[in-house]
């Protein structure tokens, strides 16, 4: 009798894994800058192969040149999208954002104080800002990091997504004055939305931050973990930065509740996080259940 029950339970368990519907939560994927959903199809296929039955939403908003549009304009639409997908799956969803997409997704999640995102995966995203221009040379061939603030910290510069998270360690006054995006979602500038930005963050069951020292695009690469340069270009670990010690957006709350996962993986270039099979298997799949 006992053995039969055991077999029955085992059968039920394997059925639910095979059918997928009970076992795996839906995954929403957001692509990076100057690309679109097609850049994420290898990752989608891997998820579908390793976790059959998973419903994957590969968001097609703001692809190609549109990915340079103002950050808030993009976040507003990503927020509505996550809200709609979330309503279709009351059991909860997983969101994975790659590069700029991870920063926009984070802001969208923070802008939804009642979301049902269980796990958010930030895949090599400039969460603490960016101070490097290699990825911009396609659009601005002569742009140098040292002088880029003149472009980005202006009304015109803020019309671009990058202007919203350009974080020049030598020009922090201008950053605070002009940047309309990163200082807001990091609650460095307090607004009427700051409380709900924190609520949206602490509502997560799991925050997974993935990045590594050979990324070559995210600068400093530790920005993928909320760490950032000080004015001497020394990287201050996230847990020593004011936004963390003050718990201004709830990252400390998440860490104290064991909900913050920091993944450091060397020898992965920025363009490989979502296109290399071994990397996907090692750093993404474990968090998709
Ligand atoms: C707060 O959020 C709403 C909705 O996204 C937005 O319309 C408004 O401008 C924001 N307020 C501030 C002060 O940022």
TrEMBL record:
Its EC number is 3.1.2.2. It holds the Pfam family Palm_thioest. InterPro entries: AB_hydrolase_fold (IPR029058). Keywords: Glycoprotein, Hydrolase, Lysosome, Signal. The keyword Hydrolase applies. Belongs to the palmitoyl-protein thioesterase family. This is palmitoyl-CoA hydrolase.
